[in-house]
Structure prediction request, 144 residues.
Amino acid sequence: MKILVLNGPNLNLLGTREPEIYGYETLADIETEMKNVFPEVEIEFKQSNSEADLITWIGATRGAYDGIIINPAALTHTSLGLCDALKAVADVVPAVEIHLSNTHTREEIRHKSLTAPACIGQIMGFQGFGYTLALRALVNKLNA
Ligand code: DQA
Prediction:
């Protein structure tokens, strides 16, 4: 099973970026944790600050990956393009949306996700641990 884990803008700064909100784990820590918990899953981890990169990577998943875990970061609240990209492959590559913070407890602009309707589910509010939860849920779905 091959899973692509995508991370959007500013998530390269995890560990030092507003740690009271996002936690002290870096993206590399999260990647290591996921790989330790799921050694049987082939996990590819990517981060970009560019919407175009994320859209291109999603568009290339058909036939190459079994599922996507995505933290679109700020693009969650703005990007119809990301939503369309996820929908374009959703028939064969299901996606789970993940957020470190509980966006519903934050500013109103963060309450709406444009990308969530293109995903099979969403996990938020558990900081880095949420990525492993998302993978557990996705693996379970793919094995069902
Ligand atoms: C985030 C929440 C977004 O609102 C924010 O723009 C991020 C991170 C999260 O993981 O909690 O960059 O996606």
User: Anything to note?
Assistant: The mean pLDDT is 98. Strands lie at 2-7, 42-47, 67-71, 95-99, 121-124.
